[in-house]
């Protein structure tokens, strides 16, 4: 039997009324925003079509292309470094474990901006005459890779640990050495498990590539954020920044959808 709350209304009815009130309040707020906002001023300053047209094709051929390149290089270095750090973290050799633990804690704790400054300014000062190969691409990739390796190391380690121990035991019983079993049996299975979180990490690196502007890059090396800020300052309008943000979404939304799809497939496989 349903119990009636004070006032003669059942709990279900009270929940319905509360939910209806929340929906009503939300609709009122949306209507007020639509009615009271100065849409002509917003359109002129944030969605000026004449300004937006002037950004093409450079926003794609320079900004979007460089963002994709910086992200890809950073992800590749982070994945390779993360795998190495993860294996050191799981090693039976104490110095390896200590180094891996310290690396993970330090680079996960430092703001990414400090890593960019260290790579762009600290390395040339510490090693005079030394240039990081690849110019801005090398510097950006190294900065992103150093940070990404710390996060990916923990993700990869979790994937390796998630592989049933019987897999390693079966491989060793067939005469495989530990390194061969790890590379041939364990790591491939671990990567199938961690593909979704690695995809999410790729999305984060894409957004973090905006910090490349602190490296003192040239006009042809600008990524989307730097490209949008420079053009916004030139034309005195924020439309270039909005266009740059939309270009980020062209990369991040498909990757986010891919990560969700992969996670759903893994849940179904279980």
Q: From the alpha carbons, calculate the radius of gyration and give it in angstroms.
A: 25 Å
How far do the termini sit from each other? 39 Å
**CATH topology annotation:** MetI-like fold
Strand content: under 5%
Helical residue percent? over 70%
Oligomer: single chain
Low-confidence stretches: none
**Could you describe the largest sheet, including whether it forms a barrel?**
none
The backbone outline, from C-alpha atoms, is flat
How many helix segments? 11
Number of domains: 1
Average pLDDT for all residues: 88
Q: Please count the beta strands (DSSP E, at least 2 residues each).
A: 0
Structural class: mainly alpha
Characterization of this structure:
The chain is an all-alpha fold and 270 residues long. The chain has a single domain (53-269), classed as Orthogonal Bundle (MetI-like fold), CATH 1.10.3720. The chain contains eleven helices and no strands. α4 packs antiparallel against α9, α6 crosses α7 and α9 packs antiparallel against α11 (239-269). The longest helix has 32 residues, at 58-89. The mean pLDDT is 88. GO terms for molecular function: transmembrane transporter activity.
